[in-house]
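Field reference: "sequence" (input) and "structure" (output). Example, Condensin complex subunit 1:
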Amino acid sequence: FPGRPAPVYPPTPPSCLLAAGETAQVVQEVLSARELPPALTAFRTAFRARGALAVLQHFDPLYSLLHHFQAVGADVKEDALELMMRVVSHHSNELPAILGDSGLSRTDRTAHLNALKMNCYLLTGLVDAFEMETCKSGLLEVGPGGKKNRTKTSGSLWEEEREPLLRLLTQLLQLDLHKLWGGSVVEEEFVSLMTGSCYRILENSSIGLQKYRATREAVTHLLATALVHYDHMFSATLKITQMLQHFEHVAPVFAQAVSLWATEYGLKSLVGELLREIGQKCPQDLTRDASGIKGYATFITELAEQIPALVLSNMSVLLRHLDGESYMMRNAVLVAMAEVLVQVLNGDQLEEAARGTRDQFLNMLQAHVCDINGFVRSRVLQLFTRIVQCKALPLTQFQSVVSLAVGRLRDKSVVVAKNAIQLLAAFLSNNPFSSKVILTSMLAMLDVCLQAEYPQLAIGRAAAFLSPVITPEEEWEAMLPEVRSATQQLFQPQQEGEEEVLEVEETAEILLTNKCSCCAGSYPGENSEDPPHGNSSCKTKEVVPEEQSQTELVKQEMLVQYLQDAYNFSVKITEALSLISKMMYENCVSVVQEAIEFFVTVSQFGVPQALVGIRRMLPLIWSREPGIKEAVLNAYRRLYLSPSGDSERARAQGLVHSLSLIMVDASLGTIQCLEEIISEFVQKDEIKPAVIQLLWERFTEKSQCSSLERRAAVMLLGMMARGKPEIIGSNLDVLVTVGLSEKVCEDYRLAQEVCNAITKLAGKPKSALGNNNTPFRLPQNHMLFGCLSKTVSKGFDQPSGHWIPFMESAVMLIYQLAEGAEEICAHILQECSQQALEKLQEADGSLPTFLLTHLVSLVGQVALQQVAHLEVSVSAELHRRRILREEEKTKNTGNETTMEEELGLVGATADDTEAELIRNICEKELLDGKHLFSAFVPLVLKICNNPGLYSDSALSAAAALTLGKLCMISSEFCDSHLRLLFTMMEKSTLPGVRSNLIIAAGDLAIRFPNLVEPWTSHLYARLRDPCPSVRQTAGLVMTHLILKDMVKVKGQVSEMAALLIDPEEAIMGVAQNFFSELSNKGNAIYNLLPDIISRLSDPDCGVEEESFHIIMRHLFSYITKDKQTESLVEKLCQRFRTARTERQYRDLSHCLTLLPLSERGLHKLQDNFDCFADKLQDPAVYSCFQAVLVRFRRAGGKPENKTLAEELEQKLFASHNRGLESAETCQEGSRTPMPEPAKQKPTGGSRRQPLSTANRDDDFVTPQPRTFRNQKRAQKRPPPKKAVITFSSDEENSSEDELSAELTEEETPTKTTPITRSSARRLR
């Protein structure tokens, strides 16, 4: 500075200028805050007079401003900033002329150099001060709710001035400032001073916002100027690396800046320096610094996306982080590889070295699909999805990546499974094989090509030339038709309107030539003009066929390999379909949504198996998760509501055709789900009127269609009527006259669907309870009921398998819509009975079986609907009328209320009175001698009591179902005939009878729970029925009863658990759904687990050990609470004391391995060590406890817990060895043999076997888990009166004598709650 022999740069911290020094500028006086405004005015006056050199005499006042920056007012700060920007700008404009003056004296150069340093020092000091103030105000000026309450302050002014200031500094640095230093290198301190302000600005966390984009660009250009002209490379590398480690938000900013410097300023070496600096970071140190890891990872990822070619040249320095512990760094390096593969190493024109690099990167990515960290596995699958979508994956890698994706569908991480589904969907959308991926067609084409081509390949090349008869051209001519048909199937378009494919001849040739581009030589086409033989020499004649045959052979191999790849790809996709279809019922919403989206994609590619998944997602429409329900609606909206077509009519035809196909062979549940979806579409007006018009045309046969399509049209109209009943109501006469016409006998199923559609006019009874509107009913003489009566009576004496379902729909419709429905149905019953009597008289005492079946079914349906009519419709009508009377009374009497009304007793008493009235009608009137039903009861009982006389399966099933329906009427009738009902359920040899009675028993359990409760064990017994359909029905019925709390469950629920290993997948699904729903009922599964374990681990139960493991693995997956886990550990340890066999020891120890052991759980094991110490001599038990400790150590924990685990392990080891030694000593020193292990007891031939149809009493009951020797001893002497230890599950077992299936009068259960009966063992 002035007065010094050599110009020296002032130190950066302002406080340093206060210290004395011989070679540095020293501030002579620090002015007070009050003195600053006049001093600034003086400086402004001096600046006008002398220009930028005025700072040489006025440095102290400006330094004082920096010193008192916090205490100075905003106006003074803004004036100082404005003044310094004018000074620096003026100096910047003057310097070009000064620097260009060759006659500039040393004194003037020194003065301008010192003035430049001082001005830049003061301006950058103001930058730092304003930036710090802005950061602090940004943290403090946050009001309630997290909203900033900012006004026009110095901070906002600074944000406006920041960009112009940075441009000013950039302009200054772009000058040739080296001349001020005498042509030497500019001092590093000066460069650091200028760039330090840039780094300080970037430290602000809000710099990444879009509104500061211009500021970021200004910082980038200023730093670029310093890098290019002032050798700032080394300092920038260190500074950027440090900031990445400490400020996460700067990673995207620096990535964009480095990309700009490398591409526009030619600073490519900076990329290598930065990546090398990051690559040299110790992975162990990075693991301890989470913020630094995130910054580095984001920087690498962003940089690879913008300049992948430069990242590729420096990739080797980053590979060491793939083996580090930080999953973020692994992800970053893998993302960089993927970006390089997509943007650089992509295409067929790569050189050999580039192909090798590409394959290495792909192999590394595939290796990390099985990374130990779930986030890495998930990220790699996302990267492969991007690679496939960008068509950057070579065909040779398709099969391996698809196999990895299918394997990840079973990943325990739901995020990984979700991304695996997305990857498979991307493979389908971008597969190179065909627009359709159909397994059967691929296999057929492969067989064609193998039969046509591989015989030659098998013979070998030499043998192909020996035959002078068949030339390659002739063989191609013979093979061409088969290749044509294969390629025609391969490239067949999916739908009309898609792009036309190539001609078959061109396709075949292009396919062969493209796949064999590496082969030399021409290929003889079908219309080749070049003759195969010319006037060449004999040597040429020999060589040319050989070359052609070799080329031909390679082409054939490539074609077959191509089809083989296509076939393998189709096999993997088919395998994935079954796995993903099961994932649609996972607990994770996002996984379910991805599975639904996958099946939409698969369906669009014409895979036949996709229809299974499309139907399987239908029940999800009832999901409680709005996201899942909306995903199902969107899936069906895309699949069915967006058909292709040029006109509205064509689109309507496509939509109706698609919906009709899904209803072919659809179950009742599928139709109900589809009805919910379509009603949603109708309510949102997403189904056009043209669709409804077309459906009516199909129904009335104005538009030609098959009987199936006509029936589907009626079903669709009924589904739409649920959303808008006027669709049916406005055309009711058309439905009746056309659907219930004289031709109804030709198609009862159409008439049944017509009845179901008309039923939609009746409102839901439950929804009618809340309003006082008159329910919709049609008069008794309406043409609908006349047609129904006539149709039912007319078809009664005709043998048809579809009459009974139609009759049931007709009777239900009558009761729902007719006034005086009981009179109409009584008339139908009388007419049908009269027909049956006439047939009986004509046939001299014998009646056709089908006629008797029709009569019994009609009686049962009318009885059931009569009960439902009384309990629902009549009850609702009585309630409605009472409410109206009370409202009228209230209007007349005013606001006077009695005490009963105030207490709310009037309405409750009235409800009880109405219910009692209906109950008396059912109990005393419907089945007495005056009612029509009483005439048919003896007939039904006779058929049920004489299965040998009435052996027809349809008649027996109908009679059994009718018996159950009649029992629904009266509790007295039910009580007197329950024994017959359950005897038939157990003794009948017909699965249909047993299934019907299970359903009837389930309904009776809800209507008369106290009567059915003693017979609950017989319902559980059906879960072991030999017929799969009966087991499935029993599983469904018990699921409903248990979940509705109509059955008290204890150990008997183990029968439901046994269904988890049923060979039938549908039954297994029922059991899984049961336990999934049961897990939502608090601690239900936790409370039942000990009893289930005791039941299933009993060798007499008949459950194999491996099957027991499968069941427990499923049940323990519902134990998620720590308290439940700790309690179960203690309970299982206590069970070792009561276990009797080695099989039970092993089962209990295996259950312990399924629990995630916590610190408290480990203490429970330690506290209960004595319970299982003597069982550790069994190697299987010992290995299970070792596995428990291994899992505990793997989870990590406190050092004291590890010490406790080691102590427990030593005790386990000592007990195990002590048990083995004592066993050996006992065997060597005594002739008394050791007790026989329980595993020698035959489990396959246990007394508890699946039920057979033979009438054996002990097949239908659960025998006590008692050894044969104990049974002998019990027969010889009375049981001793001493306490014994029993399982709680044994307490539910009943003795064989108590549950004899003969069910005589004296053995009929009379207790009210004997579901869990006391065992005889309890009396000892």
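The chain has a mean pLDDT of 77.
Residues 448 and 531 are 29 Å apart (CA to CA).
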